[in-house]
Amino acid sequence: MSELRFEGVTVRYGRALTAVDGVDLTVPAGQVVGLVGESGSGKSTLARAAVGLAEPAGGQILLNDVPLHHRPGARRPLQMVFQDPYSSLDPRMTIGDSIAEAMPRGPREPRGPSRRDEVVRLLELVGLDADRVSAYPGALSGGQRQRVAIARALAGKPEVLIADEITSALDVSIQGTVLNLVRTLQRELRLSMLFISHNLAVVRYVSDIVAVMYLGRIVEVGPARDVLGNPQHPYTKELLAAAPRRGSTALPPPDEALVADAEPADPHHPPVGCRFHPRCPIGPLIRTDREHCLTLDPTAEADHRLHRAACHHAAGVLRAVGSNPPVLMQLKEDSQ
Amino acid sequence: MRRWMAVLRTPVGAGAGLLLLGVLLLAVFAPVLWSHQANAIDTDHLLQGSSAEHWLGTDNLGRDIFYRVLVASRTSILLALLATSIAVVTGLALGSAPAILGKRGGRAATAVVNIAVAFPGLLLALFFAVVFGVGAKGAVLAIGFAGAPSFARLTQTLIAGVAERDFIAAARIAGVGRFRMLVRHILPNIAEPLVVNATIGAGGTLLAFAGLSFIGLGVQPPAYDWGRMLGESLSGIYVHPAAALAPGVAVVIAGLAFNLFGEAVAKGFGVQVPRTRWTDRTPEATPARDDDNDAVLVVEDLHVTFPGPVTPVRGVSFTIHKGEIVGVVGESGSGKSLTALAVAQLIEPPGQVRAAELSFLGAPLLGRLPVRSTAAVRRRLLGTSFAMVFQDPMTSFNPTKRIGVQLAEGAREHQGLTRRAAMDRAIDRLRAVRVPAAERRARQYPHEFSGGMRQRAMIGMGLMGAPALIVADEPTTALDVTVQRQVLRLLETIRTEDDVAVLLISHDISVVAQICDRVLVMYAGRIVEDLPSTELATGARHPYTRALLAAVPDLDTALDEPLAVIPGRPVDPARMPEGCAFAARCAFASDRCRVEDPVLIDQVACWHPQAQAEYSNFRTGQR
């Protein structure tokens, strides 16, 4: 049970692309934080930074208040399950070897036969037969491979598990079993988890906390029920509107055409001011009086708003008045 | 190992393998057997031509050239193999150094390789030969080191390819050290191409070594190899041609053995395309039925077969009417994409398409046409009235051409428009698919478009003619949810404005439900249910359709219950079970389902279609 905290983490690729831009996010001990956003929003980069596959250019990543340091060959307290189970397992290694390799090595760790027992236990934990130990990944289906990948991540005795789009390469009929497995394991083992997905319905199903990412920044974060029930940021609302509802057989009514057809922003050239303004249905494109969105970055004041929403016009504004719980105050929309 | 055996079973592979085995056996046993004959000096027969006693004549000491060629095989091949292994080991070390040394050391190693590769191999060999001194040892080292750079480059390239795979990242996260990473994960995954290239390289080395010996830098007397023998007897080539040719022929044969074997293995490991003749299509297609004037596309009993034989599409029939959006859903391997490709005439040999009828706007698409002009007519019909949208809009545009030009191309070809008119039409169509600033965007390249915009441009390309049908294969799968909605809405708008029919293939039943009039559910190459999309939520009767619907989490999924799942896994098209393909995963399957294959009757292919009322308490089983 550990807490993972990102403090002002910035990750750059080369000089031109800032994939993650000053992200503050906490994964509380034993809880699941769901991170949603579109491709290019930086959610996978954030995960890669956490496990040491990408080097942060700024800020720090703390595990239980201690900054993480990744050294090659050293045990990593964070483990990750990747999107594509066809690429994440070494085709030349039996799945037993793949799992055993991820187990911590040291004087106090199990050796020999008991190591093998541990591999079998992990396989059974993810619902695979023990006789699969000597199978190669080529003999397994996508869903089974993803189970092996989960077992391998658990073999590392992780303090925090990171799941990066783990179901998006799977068929819908398989997706359910993997999600059920992840949820059961998380509850049984009280794992802290960062669950990344572009699918809001999937994130909703597994997460305690939902964070929404847009162009390298977290634009809204809060308890899953609150964020999905009472979204503050227009982007969150857009995501919600696009997610499928039970039995819906028609496209949702079109928004303002101008915004609906706007292009997603280019991460190489993020817009100034509010990063969402070129697509925002309540922004300067639609309401000409809102020029401040073009120049003022709403992230600065985000801590004072409900769900830390990075929007000048989030309906609720949170102001701690020294009392708990915080008091919600309604402000006039154009008071900013 | 199985693949090596498969290589040996091909004619070229078997021939090359036998030849190589022969050459190697010769190298091992020839000196043991014939050393005596080869070294016997016969001063009575100096520099003689071929005779019954000396088949290939004798050299300047009267030694038998035939036996000398045989015996020289050991020196020649051994030294060539030694040089090759020096090249391979040095190349491997240099090439994999970046993986072990970390950032700075790796960059230095890469720089060394880059510089070394820039020098011609022969120049390097001569340089090293001078440095290491004349003689067999010097020549081995020279040729070995001269061959190392190209091998190092190959290793680097192969490692770079593997290093991007996720399992390397996973091993790093698991705390695997650099050296172990190289030995356990990287090398096993690049071993095959390395071995193949080393084999081919050995042939080259053999030749290079013969060259060095020929000019006197290699093997020194009294030792001899083929190159040396060639050099010695060359002066007398007009008198004793056989003496000079024999060692040359030996070099060629041994070199060929290595090269051929390497090439055969490389070919065997690469993608194999078994050749099947492309004849077995329906010879003459029947014209479309007259009673269905409204039909845009008629598909009757469509089969797609690949060698194996595997039949991923087994008898699909459907009709699409004017202005209708029909969705096809199914999991991977259900045959939905192949159905779309078959309709679009995009199944490449060795795949085969058979159908009782496959006609578009009343014109048959299958079968050879008797007159050549009709083929052109058919091509024009497809070019102007048929549009295809693929999943990945990045790969379906030519990255080196401007979007506008690519759109205009088809119109100039099929409609005979001038360059000017075609470009105007392209800009107009981009506007129609609501690409902002169409005139400017038409002059941009595909990489300057975002995924959603590219997909619009792709649809725009389909609209250049006056399409009657757009086949869209997973058009929104590569797109983000918000963009996905825009593209779907665009398709819907086109349908309503231009009365275009759409065949939409998707794995996502919620996408299909949103814009389609009718949904075809596919499983294991068959349509198992055909129903209006408004009835999806409540009226589905096939257990698979229901399971599929229940398995997709949405914003109303109960959080305290496990997700509904479909037990088992999708059917492998190569091992199609008897009876209903879904029976093994179906909660309602009976004995009949396991033996008798249900056909599509009354829009559902199931022996136990579920009644609508049972729907609410339906669950396929939980795990």
Automatic annotation (TrEMBL), chain A:
Domain of life: Bacteria
Occurrences of domain ABC transporter (ranges): 4-240
Presence of the UniProt keyword Nucleotide-binding in the record: yes
Gene Ontology molecular function terms on file: ATP binding; ATP hydrolysis activity
SMART domains the UniProt entry points to: AAA
A single GO BP: peptide transport
Keyword annotations of the record: ATP-binding, Nucleotide-binding, Transport
Family stated for the protein in its record: Belongs to the ABC transporter superfamily.
UniProt-listed NCBIfam families: oligo_HPY
Designated name of the protein: Peptide/nickel transport system ATP-binding protein
Record organism: Kribbella pratensis
TrEMBL record, chain B:
Protein's name according to its UniProt entry: Oligopeptide/dipeptide ABC transporter ATP-binding protein
Residue ranges of the TM segments: 77-101, 113-134, 194-217, 237-261
SMART domains linked to this entry: AAA
PANTHER family: DIPEPTIDE TRANSPORT ATP-BINDING PROTEIN DPPD, OLIGOPEPTIDE TRANSPORT ATP-BINDING PROTEIN APPD
Taxonomic lineage of the native organism: Bacteria, Bacillati, Actinomycetota, Actinomycetes, Propionibacteriales
Subcellular location: Cell membrane; Membrane
Residues of the ABC transporter domain: 297-549
GO molecular function: ATP binding; ATP hydrolysis activity
